[in-house]
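User: Can you help me understand a structure? I only have the sequence.
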Amino acid sequence: MTRDRFAGRFSGRLAQLQAAGRFRAEPGPGLGAIALALTAEDPDRVVISQDGRDITRWDMVAMARRLGGALQARGLTPGAVVAFQLPNWWEATVINMACALFGWRIVPLLPIYRAAELGTILPACGVDAIFVPPASPKVDYRATVEGLAHVPGTIVTVRGEGCEFAGLLESAPATPQLPPSTDAKMIIFTSGSTGRPKGVIHTHASLDAVVRRTGEFWGMGEDDVLYVPSPIAHIGGSIYAFEFPWITGCRTILEDGWDPARAVRQMDAEGVTFMAGATPFLRGLLDAAKAAGTNLPGLRRFICGGASVPPELVRDALEAFPNAIVSRAYGSTEVPLAFPGIRDRAGARAHADTDGERAVSVRLLDPDPTGAGEIAVQGPQMFVGYLDPEDDAGSFTEDGFFMMGDLGRMVDDSFVAITGRTKDIIIRKGENISPLEIENALQQHPGVAAVSIVGAPDPERGEMVVAFVVPAPGAAFDFAQMVAHLEQAGFARQKFPERLELVDALPMNAVGKVQKPELRRIAANTGSTT
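Assistant: Let's start by predicting it. Here is the structure, written out as tokens:
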């Protein structure tokens, strides 16, 4: 299938979603229009800082216009799809701004992705241009993309040997072609229970609604400094880096990689007021701050989510950081920050065992006697639909509430407490992992007769990935063979099981379905067999 046919399929999907009335967010100025207006008003205000480099509004827009001119010269027109597979580098914020100014859809990709993930995602979106890091001893990103069946017309290396990005920024600036705010802005992928990545489509307006509602809830403004080590290819990291500095007026510090000791030094030196991250981030920050003898006096909010967050961890952080509101938050790629935290320290302490205060309409489906039911939400920050229409099936109620895939109950009518999951997902270091995807891959190994993948509680990761394998008759299957097989299949290391449990049989119910709750119980109480 050619790129034109892929792009046509994507355009057809957007038209289908428009006709279905999914574009609900209130129309208003998109990020590009906001950036142009704010740059004219105060061009010297810093929006992004990284490694001693400050990028002002004027810098950002000027570089984005030059990048836009370069990509226009390579044939990109409004509606084109641009991907990046970069770490938390400032260059990604320029790419995003160029897309906002010229009406291109952006696709953030995790650097851990390999051929298996890219070979699905790039053709599904009809990617026209992709930005990648230089080759490293572990992976040649450009060669990986060039080896796929669907190769974007433009591949640009950022930084290092063979860097082309800097040259593109020397092009003549182009005149922006602003898209309507109801147009699709981002296609971001999340692992689902279907066993393949699902493309989540957000518009300029839905992302604007996320930031405005959350920024107001958090009380963010021009005096705030937001520290962002979370991956910018996740929905959280992307909006903190791309949208928050423009819509709330804060300054964002991008961090490439997570080093708790370095984070503490930077947060004290830069007067960081806000940070968000999964459980390992908060635990690491607590330990590093204690070791450094600081209570991070400038920090006034830490939002923790993306995995299981022990209430005692929240209470410890409230004690350690006396000026900060530390709380859990809850949302998804589809509906980011649906429960953006808790408003004050007293509430955070009293509701440390909940997952935040609602900022959306909430419905609990089929509640049990305790009041817990499947969580369904609706609001202007909700995505418009999945890239593949098949993924929409079973994801929405008849009146348009999105079913989050989690079970929960409401506390004091405003706070949600997550009690379980309805979908088979493992959350490892804030990353959703589909067990089915790994199971399908391992089932292809000749030494595997049956396999089931589950998550086990882990204090560092939130959950670790555990593989239960029934070896084929006469086969000797081991951990090294499992790793080698997944490497050969092109999977990201993030998805590799940390443990392998060899068993004679998998527990089944009367209709032959694997009993994963029983495997999770075993995994939680069994040591490693690696």
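Now, to help you interpret it: The chain is about 35% helix and 25% strand. The longest strand covers residues 448-458. Let me know which part you'd like to focus on.
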